[in-house]
């Protein structure tokens, strides 16, 4: 099975994942078994992440979290590429919202990596990088999710203090308002402020929020009932990926 043939089949499958499964939070029913073929899955991640279609990049970012034996710098590479993409866009471009959505999936994949002892350190580093970037002026709305995961694992207490300070801007008043990050999403920092306050208080629900979300996704993915046609097509693709893996 050639790489081109694998990619051709993947395009159809990725459309189904991005257009339907991810909306229902059940993408794991496809991504988990595919992630068992680490080489094939990694090839597909790199292939899809070059797409101008942000749904394809979201699928790639999500798949990276399920890869059994990923390269330890895979998520960092994806984050670097999405940050560069965002930086190339006009400051007021609505397309920057797509970059926010892709980075959110990178954050969730990093949270999955935190569950594996050999991937914890690169995952912690990536999550810290996203929070640090947000604090220093490169706004990412998933920074609060990254911070929640770090706190769940008792990581980066000093970063939490800085994040909490960031959430309560003390810049010069502008027409009666404090300075806020400039981004087409028009952030108010209310969500970040609520997360930071709850995390500082070690609120259990907030500390567990991302872990709970991942568990719910996993449970839903197991319970999904596929049509015979979809099941057969998926089995065929998994076999193709397995053949590519062993070639």
Plain-language structure description:
This protein has 247 residues and is mostly helical. The chain has two domains: 1-71 and 226-247, no CATH class; 90-167 and 181-223, no CATH class. The protein is built from 13 helices and no strands. Helix 3 (38-49) runs antiparallel to helix 4 (54-64) and helix 4 (54-64) packs parallel to helix 6 (96-113). The longest helix is centred in the first third of the chain and has 19 residues, at 3-21. The radius of gyration is 19 Å and the shape is globular. The termini are close together. The relative contact order is 0.13. Residues 171-178 have low confidence and may be disordered.
Write the layout of secondary structure elements.
Layout: H1 3-21, H2 28-35, H3 38-49, H4 54-64, H5 74-88, H6 96-113, H7 120-135, H8 143-152, H9 157-166, H10 190-200, H11 204-207, H12 209-223, H13 228-246
Helix pairs in contact: 1-4, 1-13, 3-4, 3-13, 4-6, 5-6, 6-7, 6-8, 7-8, 7-9, 8-10, 9-10
């Amino acid at each position: 099975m050639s790489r081109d043939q694998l990619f051709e089949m993947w395009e159809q499958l990725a459309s189904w994942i991005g257009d339907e499964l991810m909306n229902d939070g059940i993408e794991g029913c496809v991504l988990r078994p595919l992630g068992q073929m680490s080489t094939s899955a990694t090839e597909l991640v790199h292939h899809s992440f070059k797409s101008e279609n942000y749904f394809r990049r979201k699928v790639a970012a999500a798949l990276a979290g399920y890869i059994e034996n990923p390269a330890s710098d895979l998520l960092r590479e994806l984050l670097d590429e999405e940050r560069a993409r965002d930086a190339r866009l006009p400051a007021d471009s609505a397309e920057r919202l797509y970059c926010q959505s892709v980075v959110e999936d990178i954050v969730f994949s990093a949270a999955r990596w935190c569950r594996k002892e050999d991937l914890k350190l690169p995952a912690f580093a990536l999550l810290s990088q996203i929070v640090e970037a947000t604090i220093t002026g490169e706004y990412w709305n998933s920074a609060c999710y990254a911070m929640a995961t770090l706190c769940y694992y008792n990581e980066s207490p000093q970063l939490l203090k800085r994040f909490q300070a960031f959430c309560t801007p003390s810049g010069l008043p502008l027409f009666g308002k404090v300075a806020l990050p400039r981004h087409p999403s028009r952030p108010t920092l209310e969500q970040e402020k609520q997360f930071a306050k709850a995390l500082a208080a070690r609120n259990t629900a907030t500390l567990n929020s991302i872990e709970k979300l991942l568990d719910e996704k996993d449970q839903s993915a197991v319970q999904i009932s596929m049509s015979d046609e979809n099941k057969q097509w998926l089995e065929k693709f998994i076999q193709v990926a397995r053949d590519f893996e062993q070639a």
